[in-house]
Amino acid sequence: EIVLTQSPGTLSLSPGERATLSCRASQSVSYNYLAWYQQKRGQAPRLLIYGASSRATGIPDRFSGSGSGTDFTLTISRLEPEDFAVYYCQQHGNSPYTFGQGTKLEI
Amino acid sequence: EVQLLESGGGLVQPGGSLRLSCAASGFTFSDYAMSWVRQARGKGLEWVSGIGAGGERLYGDSVKGRFTVSRDNSKNTLYLQMDGLRADDTALYYCAKGFCGSDICYWATDHWGQGTLLTVSS
Fold it and tell me: Does pLDDT of B99 surpass 90?
């Protein structure tokens, strides 16, 4: 199975700043099928990005994804107060469709 | 509006069995892959199992041989039969829906239920 390693584990920033989250795969992700999810406390995850760089329906354009092969990045251009949450990457190219361990974005 | 409602969680002894259900509405259930994802308290997400629109069944390494995923398209319901339960299966189990773009369908999940809690303990 593909192991996804997210860094950093915790990212401390302020509203208005730029956030850069990393996800590294143990082997190349097929078709660059890498997704990003946001999860707030007590809520189910929400899909942000799929296929490495495609925004899901209704996701603001301050969220962007990039990368290919084994290295992927989620960028939040200008942090809003509601963006402080835990972010997970998931590869959806090869079963089992593994998740990373998460990055906590905190104020 | 897409809705996914999980049920069937509860307290089970180690070695026991349980079946989870996920009732889907608001979309053509038979057209989409469906997944089960779990989350232990305070921990990250773990993809458990999935079933494709065509019936392809897939499993995570930790549950292979113990869990069985199925779907009943006539009832718009997804199931997860869990046998040989262990303490480390204790988690909130989410049902999640795959989605399709203009010409391709994905295993990434665009809608999630609120989960059903499984506790495995003696």
Answer: no
Residue A3 · residue A99 · CB < 8 Å = no
Q: Are B22 and B4 in contact (CB under 8 A)?
A: yes
Residue owning tokens 């996914």: B4
Could you tell me which of A60, A15, A17, A68 has the C-alpha nearest to residue A38? A60
Of A54, A99, A101, nearest to B47 by CB-CB distance is A99
Question: Cis link prior to A15 (omega < 30° from 0)?
Answer: no
Number of H helices, E strands in chain A: 0, 10
How much of chain B is in helix, strand and coil states, percent to nearest 5? 5, 55, 40
DSSP code for A54: E
pLDDT per residue as tens digits for the range A10-37 = 999 999 999 999 999 999 999 999 999 9
- β-pairing verdict for B45-51 and B34-39: antiparallel
Those residues of chain A that have pLDDT short of 50 are none
Angle at A34 between CA A30 and CA A36, to 5 degrees: 170
Return d(Cα B38, Cα B46) in angstroms, integer: 5
CB contact under 8 A, B108 and A99: no
pLDDT in tens, B16-54: 999 999 999 999 999 999 999 999 999 999 999 999 999
| Distance (Å, whole) CA A27 – CA B117 | 33
Cβ neighbours of A101 in B, within 8 Å: 44
